[in-house]
Amino acid sequence: MISGQTVVGKIVAALHAGDPRGVEPVRMPLAEALAAVDTSVTTLREQGCCYSFRDWHDDVNAVAVPFRDPRQDRWLVLSCSGPALSMGPQTFIDDVAPRLRALAARLGGR
């Protein structure tokens, strides 16, 4: 299931902004869903990733990074999640996201 609350769902929503084919309807009020997509698009453009800090589950933080598969020319997503109590947002912003972006760049051939 892809939703606007999971970190991978945020990536999918950001990549498909304006073209919702294949994206499952989000189970939240429309205004909230549109704001979440706008935030995801902005975060993806500015930081190259999307975050989920206790959005999907109260005990889970996560980050996801998309990259283009150079062999099959399709979008793939790397994600990393961890317990919110021991891996706070700053851990994902400062440590995990940069490493995940670097890995995605290598896998995408950049």
Descriptive account of the structure:
The chain has 110 residues and is of the alpha+beta class. The protein has one domain (7-107): 2-Layer Sandwich (Beta-Lactamase). The protein has helices at residues 7-15, 30-47, 89-107; strands at 50-53, 60-69, 74-83. The protein has a three-stranded antiparallel beta sheet with strand order 1-2-3, sandwiched between helices. A hairpin with a 6-residue loop joins strand 1 (50-53) and strand 2 (60-69). Helix 1 (7-15) crosses helix 2 (30-47). The longest helix is centred in the C-terminal third of the chain and has 19 residues, at 89-107. The relative contact order is 0.17. The mean pLDDT is 82.
- Describe the sheet with the most strands: 3 strands, antiparallel
Spatial separation of the terminal alpha carbons: 30 Å
Integer tally of domains: 1
- Helical fraction equals 40-55%
Q: Point out poorly predicted stretches.
A: none
CATH class: Alpha Beta
Query: Helices and strands, in N-to-C order?
Result: HHEEEH
Number of strands: 3
Looking at CATH, which topology would you report?
Answer: Beta-Lactamase
CATH superfamily: GAF domain
The rough form would be described as: globular
Q: What would CATH call the architecture?
A: 2-Layer Sandwich
Strand order of the largest sheet: 1-2-3
Q: Which whole number gives the mean pLDDT?
A: 82
Secondary structural class: alpha+beta
How much is the radius of gyration in Å? 14 Å
Q: β content, as a range?
A: 15-25%
The number of distinct helices, counting runs of at least 4 residues, comes to 3
Oligomeric state of the chains in view? single chain
